[in-house]
Structures are given as C-alpha cells and as structure tokens.
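G., the chain you wanted modeled:
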Amino acid sequence: MRRSTAVILLILANLFWAGNYICGKYVIGAMQPIQINFLRWLIAAIILFPLAQIIEKPKWKAIWREWKVLLVLSILGIIGYNILLYEALFFTSSLNAALINSVNPAMIAILAAWLLKEKLSKVNVLGLIISLIGVLLVLTRGNLLRVFAIDYNAGDLFMLMVIISWTFYTLLSNRIKDLPPIGATAVTVALSLLLMLPFFIYSNFNWSFTPATTFGILYLALFPSVGSLLFWNIGVPVVGSGHAGIFLNLITVFTAIISILLGNGINLFQIIGGIVVIFGVYLTNKKFVKKSVNHEMN
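Predicted structure as tokens:
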C-alpha cells in the first residue's frame, strides 16, 4: 500500500473516533458501558466476517492460530479502550477527555522508539510537539494557561487508563501486519464478544431506547468500530506505530469541529490550532516519506 493511502486511512479513522467521543457522551446516559460496547461490536462482527470473506478470502485457520496475540489486542483495543472511555465520559466532559487523550501520541512515539526501535528524527519530534501545541490551542481557545485551571476527576483518571490501553494496542498491532486486516479484525472482535458476553448478560440489558440512542449505537458500530479499527490496523504497519500515534491528535481537532457544528461557537484560536495540528502531523511524517522514496529508488 502507498504511504499516502495509509495516511488518508489514519485521518479517516480519527475522524470516526472523534464521533465516538461526541456520540458516546449521549449514549452513555441511556445504557451501561458494557452494553454499549457489546452491541456495537456485535453489529460490527456481523459486517466484518462476510466483508473479510468477500474481499480477502482469508485462510481463517491461519488467523485463528494467532489467537493469543489477537486475544490481547481484543482486551486492549476493543474491551479496555472503549469501556474505559465510556466510563470516563460518564464522569468527565468531552473537553477533559480529549485534552488528556492528546498525550497519547507522545506516549506511543516514545515507547515505539524504546521498545520497537523506531527512529524519530528531530523533525519528527518537532512535529509531535507542534501538533500537541495545536491541540492545546483548540481545547483552551488560545488560553494555554487554562490547562492548569481544569479540575480533574475520576473520569480523567479513566482516560489515563484509556491512553495506556491504546498505546500498547498500537505497539502490538505490528505483530499482525502479515495477517489480512479485515479477517484479523473480525477474529479480534469475535474474541472480545466472547469475553464480554457474561458481563453483558449480567447487566440485565433491556432494549427500550429512543430513536436517537438506536442511531447512536448504529453509528458507533459502523464508523468507530468497523471503519476506524480497519483503517487503523491497515495504516499502522505502513507508517509505523510511532508515526501513526501522532494522528491521534486529530481526534481532538475533529471533536472540536463536530462540537461547533452542533451549535457551539468558534474562535480564531480554534481555527489556528487545527491548522497547527495538521502541520505537526505533516512534519512528523515528512522525513520518513523521503526515506521511503529513496529506498524504493535504490
């Protein structure tokens, strides 16, 4: 796959995840986190398995042989990340959640350089710092000192666990780069459903929700679940864990934009911050692109 294609997929993945923050905040008021997570991934599984068979025609036995790695991925990326996120959104605002999430790219980049020996040039590090500044501009509306004025609560602590969960999911995703992405994602989802089923049954689920809640679950199933996870799993092995992690800053920008479209105001610093984040993402990947081109020419 061309690197430019992988970059587009990573951008789309984060756009859909931004909707997860907004939509999840509404749905969490109608059902428990385990119920939200089980339902969205059940719908996703119904889509993923036929999709994998039609597009990839994978050797399912070969995928299931990697069940140990896929099981860990399901615990980290499907169960842990999402349930912890919904728990966080129950206690904290989308602003706090997105702000804390902006630390995720730095954690991924640092651990990828340490554990996976992925190289980060000075330009890459500069891009990471610039994109983080852009995120803070968006969230604080240009008043960076507001970061220190935000009160952190139990939800913010849940977000720290969200970051840790997704960091190790991203690092471990490199282990499945030789597997067909749709098939591997489908099996990962299936394993997560098996793990969540007893807890879902115990939660005494009762479908008595408004059309808005139903629409919310369908959105979570189709876009943050199927779309984002597939695009992320396809894009990460192409660009590398450390470089892919910086794209997570786009979640904050997209979340701010969606919030504005839903009726909140916008100011100059939010526009500037969004541009700064995009520029930071570009710098983080710029030198790597040149290396890839030179390698192909040789």
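Residues 268-297 form the longest helix (30 residues).

Shout if anything looks off.
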